[in-house]
Amino acid sequence: MIMKQSLLILITLGLMSCSGYLDVKPDIRMDVPNTLEDCELLLNDYGNLNMTSPAATLIAGEEFYLNAENWYSVTNLDDRNAYTWSDEQGVRGMGWQGPYRTIFLANQVLQVLEKLPRDEQNLSKYNDILGKALFFRAFAYHQLAQLYCLTYDKNTAKNELGLPLKQTPDLVMVNGRSSLEDTYQFILQDYTKASHLLSITAQAKSLPNRTAAFAGLARVYLDMQLYDRSFQYADSAWRLQPRLMDFNVLDSNSESPIPKNNEEVIFSALTPYSEALGSYYSRINPSLMNLYMQGDLRKKVFYRENQDEPGTFGYKANYEQTESGSFVGLTTGEVILIRAESASRLNRQDIALKDLNMLFASRFKNDENIKYIEDDPQKILSMILAERRRELVFRGRRWADLKRLNKEPAHQTELQRTLDGKVYTLPAGSLGYAFLIPQAVIELNPTIQQNKR
């Protein structure tokens, strides 16, 4: 066990010091894993696999605001700039480095597996490890695509810039960026392969299972606006894990009312810690608070009134019960909303209403007996989109939703911030929805094309 722990330490230190796409220089020699047990150990590296999603997808959204004093107090320049959609860059570039660390580890495991025999004795274990590595790589690439690429449009994706697609664990970046079409097809391919390989159950919420692969596919297809596929995979995920928490039994007065590893969590993932997202700095946008209807328990379960600033609210419902990062993983609540929206867009309004009311039943006071009844398809869709805002708060999903919904005139949103009297705006469909790749990465890899402005 000591030897295996040393292996993990060496690999992790190596990740912190590798060059090219991770933008730091190598100075530590890494021991190379060579057994299934070594691969399992690497895939249990929570810090480098589950805590690397970009915080900028939350910071750049519209769910909270910072007053000028708190904004100036944020020490991470990248986070400050993300809040105002500025093209200035800090020195960390964690939104880029973090997911590529995950990809490096996944590629390391995949390379080892190629050299190991797969036989009757180890088939189940081998396949599960292979599926996990593919899942982690797909999840990381999707997180990167949401931050550094424009939204997917099937009519233009072949001509839009995607990501550098790294498939080996060497420390040299690939030659340039793929198309957005190739990026999304690569993500879908990894998730699909993983769905055939992963076990139905996982040892922990930090490790993916088949349900997680289906949920990941549903999320990606929704971002691609391919609603027949997003419906299919959301339905498959729900059939494997058909459970919702009853918010009536939660202690809304608690500072951490959402139980860790609860029955809704399919896969756990976090952003790194960000001061901008901390409950001491961020204030919930009043427009979001106003979306909650009478009897909606989430208003008290998700938020607490700030004692130092009465009338304002902070978020307290992290699904990991931590301030060390924001939860951006997969849940059954999100799966139900993907299925509902997809059904509505496919004109299957009966299913959309059924899913919406099933979620309401677990989120509203029992004595409210709420049931949403509507015949107008556009009103049903609007209610589902509003429900995504109420349910998936502080999950990083609003940024992805803004990008895809800005393609629809009826659902376009112009974002606006005000700091010290200065107004910052991000128009619907702006090129600013694709963050600039860190300049240090461009300098180390001149073939990587910067995003347009």
From TrEMBL:
Tell me which UniProt keywords the record has, alphabetically.
Cell outer membrane, Membrane, Signal
Q: Provide the protein's localization.
A: Cell outer membrane
Q: What is this protein called?
A: SusD family
Which regions span the lipid bilayer? Answer: none
Task: State the family it belongs to.
Answer: Belongs to the SusD family.
Task: Identify the domain of life.
Answer: Bacteria
PROSITE patterns associated with the record: PROKAR_LIPOPROTEIN
Q: Which GO terms describe its cellular component?
A: cell outer membrane
Q: Where is the RagB/SusD domain?
A: 332-451
| Pfam families to which the protein is assigned, alphabetical | SusD-like_3, SusD_RagB
Annotated source species: Sphingobacterium thalpophilum
